[in-house]
Specification:
Blueprint (H helix, E strand, L loop, with lengths): L4 H11 L4 H8 L3 H8 L8 H11 L3 H6 L13 H7 L3 H10 L4 H19 L1
Length: about 120
């Protein structure tokens, strides 16, 4: 099983020799919020908080949320706040992780299917 966002927050906080209170102060939240994040009790963290959290932990929002970085040159059009909003829920995180394992043809096939589902939903 892959590492959760809470586990990544905890691991990086410890690597930086930072207390929950210190991280909370940098992000603008209470230590109890940091504790909830680390335990995985909060599913949806606001994009603005993700941005502050990743800055405080000195890691990219992408790594914080899905455990991998993106090729920033290839995806330079994606700003970190917009990227964070896309990946806030667990289902989206899992979907992105799975997409990253697909080859180019499989990604095209998945895109075609997603477009089909969208048209079906819109009637």
């Amino acid at each position: 099983m892959s590492e959760t966002m809470g586990e990544r927050i905890y691991k990086r906080r410890i690597e930086l020799n930072m207390t929950m209170q210190e991280l909370g102060d940098k992000v603008g939240v209470q230590a109890s919020a940091v504790n909830k994040w680390e335990k995985g009790l909060v599913e949806n963290i606001k994009a603005s908080t993700i941005k502050k959290l990743s800055a405080a932990l000195e890691i990219s929002p992408a790594y914080l949320m899905i455990g991998t970085d993106v090729d920033h040159e290839k995806y330079s059009y994606v700003n970190s706040a917009a990227f964070a909003e896309i990946l806030l829920d667990r289902d989206s995180q899992e979907l992105i992780a799975e997409i990253n394992t697909l080859n180019k043809n499989e990604k095209k096939e998945l895109l075609t299917y997603a477009q089909f589902l969208k048209k079906k939903r819109e009637g």
